[in-house]
Amino acid sequence: QSSLSTGAYRRKVEEARAECGDRTDVTYVGSWNRHPRLIAALADNIRLGLLAFPSDVRATVAVLFTAHSLPERIVAMKDPYPDEVKGTVEEVTQLLSDQPIYFAYQSQGRSNEPWLGPTVESMLETIQLAGHRHVLVAPIGFLCDHVETLFDIDIELKQLAANKGMRLERIAMLNDSPPLIETLLDVLTTHESSSCIQS
What we know:
The protein is 48% helix and 11% strand. By secondary structure, it is an alpha/beta fold. The protein has a single domain, classed as 3-Layer(aba) Sandwich (Rossmann fold). The longest helix is centred in the last third of the chain and has 21 residues, at 178-198.
């Protein structure tokens, strides 16, 4: 949830409804960043991703969680986004063993204002300085493949890692997998039930 993403979408919907004179009841799903099915699915994909590395190094592969960066001004706005991202990372981490864990924001915009950090680029250097040569990126801020995973990570970040003598892989995105479909079904069913109770 963020005023700059989900909040903006809601505002657009409400503006369109007002312009059309629409009086249909509309409700919005709240946060589900800690949903147990979502967390389990992400942890499973991380475990599968670790299998891409040789067995003798798997225990020391650094897991780099990422989420899309947003302008830093959201912190002053008390936007829930940073805490929600952190919450997802915390929940997934609890299901992993003693894997080295790191977090960074990726895909900053091109505006001149400050954006949330640390950046994936700077964090990659931190991971290297900590002695790790193998990195598994877990973009938990995204549900499906798109330019931020297929290009920003799979091409640009992977090349940056290679230039540092590091091997970087990425977990599979949830896309249209059964675990994500089941998560969405449960989220919507719960939301519908609570909406009926409130009305």
